[in-house]
Write a structure and sequence with these properties.
The chain is α/β, with parallel strands linked by helices. The protein has seven helices and 15 strands. 34% of the residues lie in helices and 32% in strands.
C-alpha cells in the first residue's frame, strides 16, 4: 500500500518545475505522481486520479469551478497559484483550499502545505473511523448489518452483486456493482475489473501478467483488467 502522500502539479508556467523543486526540498513525504503544463489535461487526468494534493497554476478561470468541485468531491486538497489578485479572489470564492500569489514566498508555501497535510490527515482519520461503521446490506429475507472493513470483495452478476465477507459468508444484494463502487471508493476499495471491486486492505498478493491477478485474504484469485492495471498499481504502490 502507498505510504507517501501523492501530489500532482498542473502548471502553465514551467510545467511545475519550480513547484516540484520547492515541494521536494521542503516536504519529502510527498511523491509527485503527475506533472503537466496543459490545463486541458487536468479534466482527463481527474477522471481516474485523485491525489492527496493538487497544485493548479493557470490563467484560465472559466472551468476552474468544475475542476475544484471535482477534486473536493474526492477529498483532494487544492492549492491554486496565480499572479493575479483578481483571479485569487475568484478562486477563493469557488472554495479552493488555498491560494498563493506569484512570486511564491517560501514561508507562505510552507504554511499552505502544512495546512493541507493537516487536512489530509484529518480526512484519512475520518475515513478510517467510518470504515468501522455499520451499513445495511439488503437481502431477500431483510437486511444484514456489517462493517465496511469486514467486506473482502464484491462481484458483479448482472443486476446483482455478491458480497464476500471476512467470516466466509456471502450476501446476494439486488444492486449493481457500480452502486457499490460509488459508495466504497472512499473506503479503500478499488474496481480492478468490470466484475470485481476489492477491499485493498484484504489483498494479500499481486501476480504480474498482462493485467495481472490479485490474491485476497479469502484465497480468491481475481483478474485485473489491462485497462485498470496502471491505475491499480498507482493506487497500491
Amino acid at each position: 500500500m502507498k505510504t507517501k502522500l501523492q501530489a500532482s502539479i498542473i502548471s502553465e508556467e514551467d510545467g511545475g518545475e519550480s513547484i516540484a523543486h520547492l515541494l521536494s526540498s521542503e516536504f519529502p513525504e510527498f511523491e509527485i505522481v503527475f506533472r503537466s503544463s496543459n490545463i486541458n489535461r487536468t479534466q482527463d487526468y481527474s477522471l481516474h486520479h485523485f491525489p492527496d494534493l493538487l497544485f493548479l497554476e493557470t490563467k484560465l478561470m472559466n472551468n476552474l469551478p468544475d475542476i475544484f468541485s471535482h477534486f473536493r468531491e474526492h477529498l483532494s486538497q487544492v492549492i491554486f497559484i496565480t499572479d493575479s489578485e483578481k483571479f485569487a479572489i475568484k478562486a477563493i470564492k469557488t472554495g479552493v483550499g488555498s491560494c498563493l500569489i506569484r512570486p511564491v514566498k517560501n514561508l507562505e508555501f510552507v504554511i499552505s502545505i502544512k495546512r493541507a497535510i493537516e487536512n489530509i490527515r484529518m480526512r484519512r482519520a475520518s475515513l478510517q473511523a467510518s470504515s468501522h461503521h455499520k451499513i445495511n446490506l439488503p437481502t431477500l429475507q431483510g437486511f444484514k448489518r456489517v462493517s465496511v472493513d469486514e467486506i473482502i470483495r464484491c462481484e458483479a452478476d448482472s443486476n446483482y452483486t455478491f458480497i464476500y465477507l471476512a467470516d466466509r459468508s456471502r450476501i446476494v444484494v439486488c444492486r449493481t456493482l457500480c452502486d457499490f463502487e460509488k459508495s466504497f471508493s472512499e473506503h479503500g476499495f478499488f474496481r480492478i475489473h468490470h466484475k470485481h471491486l476489492i477491499n485493498l486492505e484484504h489483498m494479500k498478493e499481486y501476480i504480474k501478467g498482462k493485467g495481472g491477478q490479485v490474491i485476497m485474504t479469502d484465497n480468491s484469485v481475481l483478474d485485473v483488467s489491462v485497462r485498470k492495471k496502471y491505475d491499480f498499481l498507482q493506487r497500491c504502490l
